[in-house]
Design the sequence.
């Protein structure tokens, strides 16, 4: 079986989900205690790690292992989305600088852009310069950052990594551990290729010699693959043909999973099979870093009460405590709330910020008022867009749609636009969902019609939306259409 390392707020749930089909390695002490198991400190074939914004997870590593793990996670819920990253970790590109910023350069990699810090290159670069770079830290397609690039070539690993052009052994840990790892390296049978140096990662301190040699061998295979790919490439991006950007090597794959509200509740079920888990555990933890401590406290208290003979059901239900979550980790009246509009192809952008004019936590409802600017017309409504117009959007946690009413400065209706989407989630500073293309509009004269069914069909054909999710979107649109007539 392939070996997987798991990190982040979804670790317990994903360990339970994956451990039947994969060997979980490098588990943290809490996971070892929770599962009452000894997970080996071996090299992983793929790593699953929660994204910085806690909205999903990235899977990186051996392409076959990444694909197999992604296939399992795809079944979590109807609103789990996946994308294969065209700029995976470890990929090497001959790219073109498109822009220079204060501390680095934006590099065109083809299907994505990356960010190269000036500190990662030994020369000053300018717009239109050619650079050879490697993806060192990939970024989710919905993230507000670009993949991080470097010019030092590396073969990444969780126990052992290699760096090209370094002739020394680098190790994590205290001085005693570093010395021991350096001595052990000399006794391992695996030989490191010329021009590559060994970097032992933190888990190497707990690995046995066989595991260390296995990890070093895997890193050497990736390094040799990189050397072979670069041997067929021009010596520098300025040489050879001028057809840039181009990908030269991709020893690893990266896939991103975006968890919607229903998927997070499915992860709760996985975690609940292992340990005490409050309703909405992952929904609350995904709201804000500070929420983790609150959730841990509630579950510890719940466990202690149960151990003392209390009724776990007293004062609680199996339903997500929407009111409490929004009061503690949601927007309040007067706050500025951003509308984060996800797309099924992995992009996410802002529809702007507005003032929360009404917040009803117990009902999971938030009303956002935005002042509009600019000219043109409102999509599908055909009415004029003018400065001074107001957009009033009403969100409800968990609902598969939300309406926006447009009004003129004088209060005259300019129509209603109902967006069909994955279940809305209300976080402290944003409302989040993934748009499902099909929408329903009601014009000022009372005409009601569905729009963009063709875009939904195209998304299904492209593989961005599953047929079951598309059918759900169509049913929701049909219900909304009937209600508006």
Sequence:
């Amino acid at each position: 079986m392939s070996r997987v390392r798991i990190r982040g707020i979804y670790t317990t749930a994903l360990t339970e989900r994956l451990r039947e089909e994969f060997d979980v390695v490098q588990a943290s002490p809490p996971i070892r205690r929770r599962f009452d198991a000894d997970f080996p400190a071996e090299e992983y074939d793929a790593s699953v790690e929660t994204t910085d914004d806690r909205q999903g997870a990235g899977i990186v590593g051996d392409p076959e292992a990444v694909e197999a793990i992604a296939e399992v996670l795809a079944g979590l819920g109807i609103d789990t989305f996946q994308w294969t990253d065209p700029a995976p970790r470890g990929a090497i590109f001959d790219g073109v600088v498109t822009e220079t910023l204060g501390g680095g350069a934006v590099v065109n990699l083809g299907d994505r852009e990356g960010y190269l810090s000036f500190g990662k290159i030994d020369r000053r670069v300018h717009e239109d310069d050619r650079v050879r770079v490697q993806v060192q830290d990939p970024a989710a397609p919905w993230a507000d950052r670009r993949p991080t690039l470097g010019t030092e070539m590396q073969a990444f690993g969780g126990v052992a990594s290699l760096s090209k052009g370094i002739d020394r052994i680098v190790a994590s840990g205290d001085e005693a551990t570093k010395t021991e790892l350096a001595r052990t390296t000399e006794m391992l049978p695996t030989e490191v290729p010329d021009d590559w140096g060994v970097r032992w990662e933190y888990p190497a301190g707990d690995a046995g010699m066989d595991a260390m040699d296995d990890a070093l061998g895997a890193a050497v295979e990736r390094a040799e693959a990189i050397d072979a790919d670069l041997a067929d490439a021009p010596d520098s991006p300025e040489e050879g043909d001028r057809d840039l950007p181009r990908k030269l090597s991709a020893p690893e794959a990266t896939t991103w999973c975006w968890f919607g509200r229903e998927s997070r509740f499915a992860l709760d079920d996985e975690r609940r099979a292992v340990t005490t888990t409050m309703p909405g555990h992952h929904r609350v933890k995904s709201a804000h870093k500070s929420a983790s401590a609150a959730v841990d406290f509630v579950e510890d208290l719940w466990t202690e009460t149960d151990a003392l003979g209390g009724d776990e059901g007293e004062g609680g239900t199996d339903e997500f405590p929407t009111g409490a979550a929004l009061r503690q980790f949601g927007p309040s009246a007067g706050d500025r709330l951003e509308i984060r509009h996800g797309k099924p192809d992995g992009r996410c952008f802002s529809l702007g910020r507005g003032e929360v004019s009404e917040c009803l936590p117990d009902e999971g409802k938030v009303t956002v008022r935005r002042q509009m600017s600019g000219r043109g017309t409102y999509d599908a409504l055909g009415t004029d867009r003018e400065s001074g117009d107001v957009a009033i959007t009403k969100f409800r946690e968990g609902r598969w749609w939300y309406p926006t009413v447009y009004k003129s400065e004088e209060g005259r209706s300019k129509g209603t636009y109902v967006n069909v989407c994955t279940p809305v989630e209300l976080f402290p500073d944003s409302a989040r969902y993934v748009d499902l293309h099909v929408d329903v509009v009601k014009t000022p004269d009372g005409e009601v019609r569905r729009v963009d069914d063709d875009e939904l069909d195209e998304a299904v054909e492209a593989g961005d939306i599953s047929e079951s999710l598309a059918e759900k979107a169509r049913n929701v649109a049909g219900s909304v259409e009937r209600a508006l007539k």
Summary: The longest strand covers residues 348-360. The chain has eleven helices and 25 strands. The chain has three domains: 1-85+252-320, 155-230, 328-484. Residues 311-316 have pLDDT under 50 and may be disordered.
